[in-house]
Amino acid sequence: MNSKSKIKGRGAQQNVHNRFFELSYEMRDDFLEFCHKEGEVADKNKTQYFNVFPKTIVNKVTSPDVGMAYSMNMYQGCEHGCIYCYARNSHEFWGYSAGLDFERKILVKKSAPELLETLLKKKSWKAHPIVMSGNSDCYQPAEQKFELTKQCLEVFLKYKHPVAIITKNALILRDLDLLKDLAKDNLISVHVSITSLSEDTRRILEPRTATIKRRLQVVKELSKNGIPVNVMLAPIIPSINSHEILPMAKAVSDAGALSLAHTIVRLNGAIGEIFSDWIKKTMPDRADKVLRQIENCHGGTLNESRYGVRMRGEGKIAKQINDLVQLARLKYFKNKVMPKLNTELHEQNKVGQMKLF
């Protein structure tokens, strides 16, 4: 790919049209040419933060095949820039593009800790694991500035409430002491996303994420401190990282992970256009092959929304991937089990301290 045309440090290379808007935004060639002649920068490629004010922070998950009942997101949009991210489409509901806007316009919910505490104190609330990062990574770069994830973990600890975390950022180790305190009562599990053992692959798929070396260190450090870790090989993309399933499984098992999960990539909504544009610019030699193989896993389309099928796919290529993951579990995760989170302590700690009677 021509370095002059590539937007460095980003996954998406364009802002695709928001399906909810009649008008669209376009960066015209004549404008780019004018900026070049004038020595001006057409696109400063800066990350912006915007405060938003939700009424609630915990969402009930109705999808039957995502493995969680409740989720919360302190941030909307994600600077990690993973090109395949299913959450990109959600940015359209906020009036932005699923492309570059998703990576550069980050919405910040500063009231998240207070909203969470209000929920956990309700008499009607019954403890159930709440997953942080059901949509965007709670340890993305914004967390260094705002520390909302850390504050929410303090709330979970105060009320002895179970919480799960999904992340691909080594910033989680900043909060190791909090995680250890939660783990004493079996109130925490961590799900680390690892999609390759190759830094070259990681850089183009997930440009602003922690390195693979650092992510493996996260798995090792958390496991060493008694914090249960599941590793998510998500997503598996045919002809990009599908050949790495067994080596990745061995590496994360050796690092201490207790279980392994996976999904096969699906490119719903605007993500199909974003991914197709990206791969034709980044991997032109294999772009058509990869896109055809993804379609092969989803009934001839990039867009897959059928519950029970969308995560695992169908067809020969999907079967090969799913069989390899099953073999990896048998080979590297035999007799390993993720513990069930403790939901028994919250009721007696609903006021922030244990009830006497």
Automatic annotation (TrEMBL):
Q: Please list which residues make up the signal peptide.
A: none
Question: Sorted alphabetically, which InterPro entries does this protein's record hold?
Answer: Elp3/MiaA/NifB-like_rSAM (IPR006638), MJ0683-like (IPR040086), rSAM (IPR007197), rSAM_sf (IPR058240)
- Radical SAM core domain boundaries: 64-301
- Which keywords does the record carry? Iron, Iron-sulfur, Metal-binding
Pfam families linked to this entry: Radical_SAM
Q: What is this protein called?
A: PA0069 family radical SAM protein
